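User: quick one, sequence for these tokens?
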């Protein structure tokens, strides 16, 4: 595929960082696990924040790690934090196994995300039409979901067989799943987890898309451009920049 100069440069920088990550002086296992846990908690906080969850980072950590109930916060917000953290553990396990990304994998991720929130819809494709608030993109009708998901997996496998850059494949997995919007709820979280599953399985660090207002606006604008204009360039750039920033931060922390 033809790519613009900025994206090509970013991918080269990411390749350099990935190589550097392999040569960084290893930390004791306990210290490294604490760093990874911190990144994972921040990822859970930011991914939920994008979707409107109002728990702070500290509150998210208390709910997930200590089982604390935060006054004034809904049960759903507590479950979103717990479920997402469990989903992160799930994709980490898959990333270090020989399990292939397929429809079953995606449904399993989604089932964890909606566990205790919507039992009837967890891990199941929607059976009703939906609209996305604030978007001109109209997701496919329910009868089109299965064939589009099958084509989505086939396209992913084609990209992989052609040797496309892993960062671009991860962006495609996120972008296309959100476009199809196969679930009644939890599509954004599931898509970001799927993106990170592919990144982790290819030797990258957890990539954290931020949930502050400015970052969220840029994120939604890039997705809208992809879904309504069939132009993935802005979203590919956004993901590449985020992967680069996450890797630089991770390496800086390890190097002290």
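Assistant:
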């Amino acid at each position: 595929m033809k790519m613009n100069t900025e994206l090509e440069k970013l991918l080269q920088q990411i390749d350099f960082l990935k190589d550097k990550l392999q040569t960084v002086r290893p930390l004791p296992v306990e210290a490294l696990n604490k760093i990874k846990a911190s990144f994972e908690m921040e990822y859970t906080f930011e991914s939920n924040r994008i979707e409107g969850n109002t728990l702070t980072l500290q509150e998210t950590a208390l709910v997930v790690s200590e089982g604390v109930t935060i006054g004034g916060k809904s049960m759903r917000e507590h479950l979103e934090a717990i479920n997402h953290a469990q989903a992160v553990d799930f994709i980490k396990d898959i990333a270090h196994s020989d399990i292939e990304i397929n429809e079953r994998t995606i449904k399993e991720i989604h089932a964890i995300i909606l566990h205790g929130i919507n039992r009837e819809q967890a891990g199941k494709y929607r059976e009703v039409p939906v609209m996305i608030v604030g978007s001109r993109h109209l997701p496919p009708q329910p009868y089109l979901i299965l064939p589009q998901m099958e084509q989505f997996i086939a396209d992913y496998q084609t990209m992989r067989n052609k040797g496309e850059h892993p960062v671009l494949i991860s962006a495609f997995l996120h972008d296309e799943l959100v476009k199809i919007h196969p679930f009644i709820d939890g599509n954004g979280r599931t898509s970001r987890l799927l993106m990170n599953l592919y990144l982790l399985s290819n030797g990258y660090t957890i990539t954290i898309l931020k949930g502050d207002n400015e970052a969220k606006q840029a994120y939604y604008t890039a997705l809208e451009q992809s879904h309504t204009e069939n132009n993935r360039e802005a979203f590919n750039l956004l993901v590449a920049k985020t992967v680069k920033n996450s890797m630089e931060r991770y390496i800086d922390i390890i190097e002290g």
